[in-house]
Write a structure and sequence with these properties.
- The structure is a single chain.
- The protein has four helices and five strands, in the order βββαβααβα.
- The protein has a five-stranded mixed sheet with strand order 1-2-3-4-5, covered by helices on one side.
- The chain has 105 residues and is an alpha/beta fold.
- It has one domain: Ribonuclease Z/Hydroxyacylglutathione hydrolase-like (Metallo-beta-lactamase, Chain A, 4-Layer Sandwich).
- The chain is globular, with a radius of gyration of 13 Å.
- α1 packs parallel to α3.
- α1 links the parallel β3 and β4.
- The chain is 31% helix and 29% strand.
């Protein structure tokens, strides 16, 4: 398993791309993105490593973790967004969850 760490978004959020092996432009390998605060550096890294985004994972719903979701979804045609909330969810987390539901396929 390989992990690419990027600092993205307006406050330098830790964004990760996780994949098993690099692919090629003709046969991109699957990858997952975690907390995409900005899509542009993620898309560059995916292209440079011959990867295709299959899933987007969000650790929580703060703005600095979700800003790049829509652009990534549109550019990469991702399958799903996963938000692992705890049992006790804050109002902000619930609102972010409803907001991200709009990205469901």
């Amino acid at each position: 398993m390989e992990i690419i760490k990027l600092l993205t978004g307006p406050i330098g959020t830790n964004t990760y791309i996780v994949y098993k092996e690099e692919g090629t432009a003709e046969a991109p390998a699957p990858a997952v993105c975690i907390d995409p605060a900005d899509a542009k550096p993620v898309l560059r890294a995916l292209k440079n490593h011959g990867l295709h985004l299959t899933d987007i994972l969000l650790t929580h719903g703060h703005f600095d973790h979700i800003l790049g979701v829509r652009e990534l979804r549109d550019a990469e045609g991702r399958r799903s967004i996963s938000i692992p909330w705890t049992r006790r969810r804050s109002r902000r987390a619930k609102a972010a969850s409803r907001s991200c539901a709009a990205y469901a396929p």
